[in-house]
Amino acid sequence: MRRTAFFVSESTGITAETLGQSLLSQFDTVEFERVYMPYINTELRAQALTQRMQEAAERDGVRPIVFATMLDEQIRSIIKSGNCFYIELFEVFIDPLAQELGVPPSRKSGRSHAITKPSYYTKRIEAINFAMANDDGVRPDNFHRADVVLIGVSRSGKTPTCLYLAMHYGLRAANYPLTEEDFERGDVPQLLYDCRHKLFALTIDPQRLQLIREERRRGSSYASLKRCQEDIARAHQIYKRLQAPVINTTSLSIEEISSQIVKTLKDAQESGGPLTREPLPIEPSY
């Protein structure tokens, strides 16, 4: 089955896309063509959009799905009049919330991404710059300034997780890639032991790792299943020495990995102790 999904907003469209993508992810037997349509903030643009929806309906043989965050009722009515299945994401929540709070909503577009707290915005920008400057272990001398340090084999998800932690939580995240030199030595630099209280180890299923590495270096020894199995097994030996909490990223999204890290940090902060040391998973034997 093939369907076209439009993510429509009179502003940036980030909310419509995020919520819409989350809903579509529950229907993995359907192939979706995703169309991103921000700034539909005039009647002329709304009418042009209805034409695109009609073209999609004729091509697919079924009406497209529209995920929208449209606060302007006139523009919304134009889009709803088109050949589509329309879902207004704000409509579901705004009126019940207004009733509960006892005040009317402002109905101003773009508020969810406005810079309402400049200090937090500045903190996030600084965290993003920190993550980019301390990626791939280039500045281990900066680990003492990090809120989180990730360790793992190549392509296990370190860099995107660090950037997500910075962008969404304002955390200064650095990462250290395990190299052949580390594996030969069977250990990592002392700097990593010094920051064990904020260290998280990432692991991944070797088959999944092979698929990811194949996209980068197809047919190479680096991407072979044997190499992936060896790297993961040797990484677990190092994790045991570090006594680092391990997160398996095989079936987790970047958001889920990050939420696990943040939860562990918060739990440790509330308890006033070091990071919770969960029992390590059974060491893989390949």
From TrEMBL:
<dbReference type="InterPro" id="IPR005177">
    <property type="entry name" value="Kinase-pyrophosphorylase"/>
</dbReference>
<comment type="function">
    <text>Bifunctional serine/threonine kinase and phosphorylase involved in the regulation of the phosphoenolpyruvate synthase (PEPS) by catalyzing its phosphorylation/dephosphorylation.</text>
</comment>
<keyword id="KW-0547">Nucleotide-binding</keyword>
<dbReference type="GO" id="GO:0004674">
    <property type="term" value="F:protein serine/threonine kinase activity"/>
</dbReference>
<keyword id="KW-0808">Transferase</keyword>
<dbReference type="GO" id="GO:0043531">
    <property type="term" value="F:ADP binding"/>
</dbReference>
<dbReference type="Pfam" id="PF03618">
    <property type="entry name" value="Kinase-PPPase"/>
</dbReference>
<comment type="similarity">
    <text>Belongs to the pyruvate, phosphate/water dikinase regulatory protein family. PSRP subfamily.</text>
</comment>
<dbReference type="GO" id="GO:0016776">
    <property type="term" value="F:phosphotransferase activity, phosphate group as acceptor"/>
</dbReference>
<keyword id="KW-0418">Kinase</keyword>
<protein>
    <recommendedName>
        <fullName>Putative phosphoenolpyruvate synthase regulatory protein</fullName>
        <ecNumber>2.7.11.33</ecNumber>
        <ecNumber>2.7.4.28</ecNumber>
    </recommendedName>
</protein>
<keyword id="KW-0723">Serine/threonine-protein kinase</keyword>
<dbReference type="InterPro" id="IPR026530">
    <property type="entry name" value="PSRP"/>
</dbReference>
<dbReference type="GO" id="GO:0005524">
    <property type="term" value="F:ATP binding"/>
</dbReference>
<dbReference type="InterPro" id="IPR027417">
    <property type="entry name" value="P-loop_NTPase"/>
</dbReference>
<feature type="binding site">
    <location>
        <begin position="152"/>
        <end position="159"/>
    </location>
    <ligand>
        <name>ADP</name>
    </ligand>
</feature>
